[in-house]
Amino acid sequence: MGIRFTVLSSGSTGNATVIDNGEVKLLVDVGFSAKKMELLMKERELAASSIDGILVTHEHSDHIKGLGAFARKYDVPIYANEKTWVELDRQIGVIAEGNKRVMDTGGVEEFGTLKVESFGISHDAAEPVGYVFYEGDQKLSVVTDLGYMSEKVKEKIADSDALVLETNHDVDMLRVGHYPWSIKRRILGDKGHLSNEAAGEALCDVMTNKTKSVYMAHLSRDHNLMDLARLTVNNIVEERAPEAKQLRLMDTYFDRSTKWDVLDSE
């Protein structure tokens, strides 16, 4: 079947994505209660009990809110690097030792024919990561919660068939918003979140003719609008890469899942 995926939900209040290759089903983050996760998965006719593993990007609550409860209920192994595990142990309750799997940053895990590689990103967490998924010649990258797109990150996610990419905020909306300046400074900093403009610029550096879809993820409900994110990214791509006629900019939602996206095989 190859890779298919759905962003179950994404935003400041919670994040979770499912990747399925027909043999294994993996979750990236569990940012909602176990009950909410079950409802979101049901929208895509997916049983929570079918999940084979959970990959954790970092320990912030909008990515691990239901992690412990979900893993215990369905006896699912959790993959995270050692520094993240230190934080998880403080937050998610007791996890069966056999389900505590250490995946070093930059490491590769194989789940049948599905290969997963992690890579370090810049965010104010213990050791945050993004993930790249490979199935044959197919490549899916999931990268959110990063203050800036380093050249190393660009190298990892370049030439993806599809990306789940952070478009967190519009800089002008954030600057005039109601947040205290200390929080604004954090979001705008190198360990904060990626703006619409920064996402668009980075996308132009990593996409190729192979890249068909980009899911704009982790939008701020206070300092962004989906239409604005799409317009900003689209304008940058049209200016810098007008030949990219194949690219689809896709919405994600804070309260519902995206339709399954099935990657093409060459």
From TrEMBL:
It catalyses: 3',5'-cyclic CMP + H2O = CMP + H(+); 3',5'-cyclic UMP + H2O = UMP + H(+). Gene3D superfamilies: Ribonuclease Z/Hydroxyacylglutathione hydrolase-like. Residues 13-218 form the Metallo-beta-lactamase domain. SMART domains: Lactamase_B. It comes from the Bacteria. Keywords: Hydrolase. One of its GO terms (molecular function) is hydrolase activity. Coiled coil: none annotated. PANTHER family: EXODEOXYRIBONUCLEASE WALJ, METALLO-HYDROLASE YYCJ-RELATED. Counteracts the endogenous Pycsar antiviral defense system. Phosphodiesterase that enables metal-dependent hydrolysis of host cyclic nucleotide Pycsar defense signals such as cCMP and cUMP. This is Metallohydrolase.
